Amino acid sequence: MIRNLSYRGLWLAATAGLIAGLLWLDHNRGGPASMLSRCNLLLTRSAAPPADVLIVGSSRSGTALDPIAMRGMLAHAVTGPAPTVERIALGHSPLRASHALLENYLDTRGAPRVIALEIMFMTRRSVDRLAQRGQETSPEHYIFRRDLNLMTFEQILTLPAVAMPFSERESMLNRWRFRLRGVVLRAGALAYQFFRRPAENWRLDACDEATWTTEPAWPPDFAFSYGEFEADAPPDDVIPALESVMARSAPQRALKPWQAGVQAGQRYPYDFGAPYRQGEVVLLRSMLGRASNHGVPVVLLPMPLYGYTSGADDLRELADTIATRAHVFDLYGQVQAELDKFWYDDGHIEVYPAGALTTAILAQHLLDTGLLEARVPVARHD
To answer: What was the pLDDT predicted at 258?
Structure first.
């Protein structure tokens, strides 16, 4: 009897120790994610003060918005210290992971002056692109497992399970099935990462420029824009100069081979009423609500794939669907030059000159709207 009680006590103590260890790792580690993912996670948990401009998005934002170049442009346009710019951007990143990272940032580092938030809705074409990259698992499951490495147990259990687009509905049963499964996968990933490399450096100083620009799974010639363009003038001078570069070089540039089979002029499939979109809309509204709770204005950036356009009706529907003060800025639609020949692939524009131009256009928009001059009043939402 005594021996059974001793065994039971040891088992309970071991279980409590395991749970305590997992909870500590949950807030101090990430699972076996890429270095780019890890550095983005560390950035949101840094002890540094918040940036003035925070860019949140996927790899589309990674190529189209250069934080270092934007800071350089803004330095020539404002008096006093140059506004700081940071970017949280990951390839194949669903809204759920970005929601978790933004939540970390606001809770740990505080409120930036403005947030530029890409609308990262998944499309059938987005899912097909992942399948073409030869992932070992199906695209839906790949995304689901990937974002778990960037989320805490609490975030997994409270956020919609939207990482299974086009395959599962956001029903109550599926939502909790994915949440509980996610907790198990996250716990296993944390334990694996810790026992594999218990003394690994998880400080932000472990990240260098290379880790902010690429991932091992990406093609060797693809990278994010990160100081690729040296800005020596304010954005309103940079914009016409870059548009001139594009206008001069476009006639000599051939379309990419993959562009021949892409139907142009399609409306981007926002599909607000579709069952698979409901969870993403919930997340988008939640991100805007959290920003509003911190008094931070948000600029929403639709970034359609090549061949798609966002018309005025689409953008009005988007604004009506989210029903907040955040305003939608059609960044690609502001490019007054032929953009077709300046796409790297069907999801990303080229870093230069297209990415430099979109960076300058957003910087000028932040100046024109006065979003870098004052915070909006804090409006708490229950």
So the answer is: 87
Beta bridge partners of 56: 88, 117
Q: What angle do CA 74, 75, 78 make, to 5 degrees?
A: 75
Q: In what order do the strands lie in the sheet with 114-118?
A: 85-90, 53-58, 114-118, 298-301, 327-328
The alpha carbon torsion through 341, 345, 351, 352 (nearest 10 deg) reads -20
pLDDT tens string 341-350: 999 998 999 9
Structure tokens at 254: 């051939």
User: Side chain identity at 224, as an amino acid letter?
Assistant: F
How far apart CA 299 and CA 374 sit, in angstroms, is: 14
User: Quick one: 148 exposed, middle or buried, by C-beta within 10 A (0-12, 13-18, 19+)?
Assistant: buried
Q: How far apart are the C-alpha atoms of 115 and 195, rounded to whole Å?
A: 37
Query: Distance (Å, rounded) from C-alpha 222 to C-alpha 184?
Result: 34
For 53, the enclosing helix (H) or strand (E) is: strand 53-58
CB 330 within 8 A of CB 216: no
Cα 98 from Cα 87, distance rounded (Å): 11
In Å, the largest CA–CA distance within the chain is 88
Q: Which conformational region is residue 274 in: left (phi greater than 0), alpha (psi within -120 to 50 degrees), or beta?
A: beta
What's the pLDDT at 207? 92
Beta-bridge partners for 176: none
Strand partners, 309: 267
Is the pLDDT assigned to residue 376 strictly greater than 50?
Answer: no
**Paired residues of 298 in beta bridges:** 115
Residue among 104, 129, 92, 112 at smallest CA distance from 49: 112
Q: How far is CA 27 from the centre of its chain?
A: 20
Q: What count of other Cβ atoms lies within 10 Å of the Cβ of residue 114?
A: 25
